Amino acid sequence: MSIRVPGNYTWESSQKPENKAKNRYKNIIPYDHTRVTLAEVDGFPGSDYINANFIDGYNHHCKFIATQGPVANTFGDFWRTVWDQGVCVIVMVTNIVEGGRVSRIRELLISLRRKAVAIILAAISILRSINSGFKSEFEKWASWRHVPHKFV
């Protein structure tokens, strides 16, 4: 069963052969008029597709993005969306266990943690080079947060 909204909206992009495998569920697909479109990668048909739609916020057009949890072949598309759209917050509303088995979401959480650590370490490196006077305050923070000494 699909959720239908008033209007004559299409979902043709989701039905292209190269995109069908990128949909976790056959009945939860993005409408063409609000779908998030990725930058196309030359030579890769369907590389502009992710099962995601923009959602308006209060007085803000396209404020939010709703997407499914990535499947194995869409992890890269998920992170491209995060990067390309400048996503700062990810809210996950899903079960870790689906149909009696652990979902691939666990891998996403591990990936998210690794990327967050990499971003923090890059920020630390930049801060270190910008302001050496900041170092003593940062060292206090780092020891409190148990950051390995080699990164301080």
From TrEMBL:
PROSITE patterns: TYR_PHOSPHATASE_PTP. Residues 1-98 form the Tyrosine-protein phosphatase domain. GO terms for molecular function: protein tyrosine phosphatase activity. SMART domains: PTPc. It comes from the Eukaryota. This is Tyrosine-protein phosphatase domain-containing protein. The lineage of its organism: Eukaryota, Metazoa, Cnidaria, Anthozoa, Hexacorallia.
